[in-house]
Amino acid sequence: VSKGEFIKACSATYDILNQSLGSNLVIPDFQEFCAEIRKLFHELSDFKGGKNADYIPQLYRANPDLWAISVCTIDGQRFSVGDTDIPFCIQSCSKALNYAINVSEMGADAVHRYLGKEPSGIGFNQIALDKHGLPHNPMINPGAISCCSVIRPEDSLADRFDHITKQYKSIAGHEFIGFSNATFLSEKSVADRNFAIAYFLHEHNVFPKGTNLKNTLDLYFQLCSVEATCDSAAMICATLANGGQCPTTREMCLSPDAVRNTLSLMFSCGMYDYSGEWSFEVGLPAKSGVAGSIFMVVPGVMGICVWSPPLDDLGNSYRGVEFAKRLAQKFAFHQFDVIQCNQTKMDLEGIKTQRPRRFRY
Asked: Strands, DSSP E only, in the chain?
């Protein structure tokens, strides 16, 4: 192989090669970390419970034994185990992405004219507004529908959908992003509650003036029906962990402020009515979807996607939540862990150490 051919072959992975040779990776002993993740995967392979979402036929028919974990660090180290190449609909995980894209493009003040920032304390699909007459936050249905209403409202529905899915693709490092038309049609056919929410928001003048209610709901259902794989979703999470810059393409997909705001709301509101318990037990920004995925972010370190279709009583992946709890017990990933004072957890090198967990900003 000539020098020129070698340089060309290495160009796509230059950053990670340079960091590896300089011992400057965010997880230096990545093999040991992956071994721990693989161990958790196998421990939970027979962890049965929950049931598939039954209100959308396509989700109900998914194989309940499917189980996958994918990891992507901010410097592009990857690990996957299980059914990581099978597409699934991201469902409510789209809410976090739509909000992040809106804030990147419009700014937080403009977006929050139409939705709030507070945990609701009520069900994700309840018909209610906060004390300011706005949906409580973008991670529940009223806020997510309002968020869709401000996505390029002057454009056609087709152009709006095309624009957002192109943004998804960039955030995912141009890895797999698909669309399930069958899921979209099914979801739309059983959407009485979401129609009621939308008319309630319209009645209370939440939407921008001139909003087309039907198009807003169609866009909301379409974006819930976008597909990813566990691998491409982990890349999305890693882009969020990296402040909006994709680890592999180095494209700046989202503004740092938008990512900070998004992660703040994922931390406080991202797991339906389990959000407070999740923040207490796991302590990471996350968003779940009723197809069984959980997008998790370890800020400044990595993104993780887990996928297992059966859901618990609160609508989160039964096996995914257990994985996250065990991960937080094993590693000092909780936002309020201080490794110097907690010698029972591993740091990012997989060993007990006096070094602070957060060592790169």
From this structure: 68-73, 78-82, 88-89, 177-179, 226-228, 286-288, 293-298, 302-307
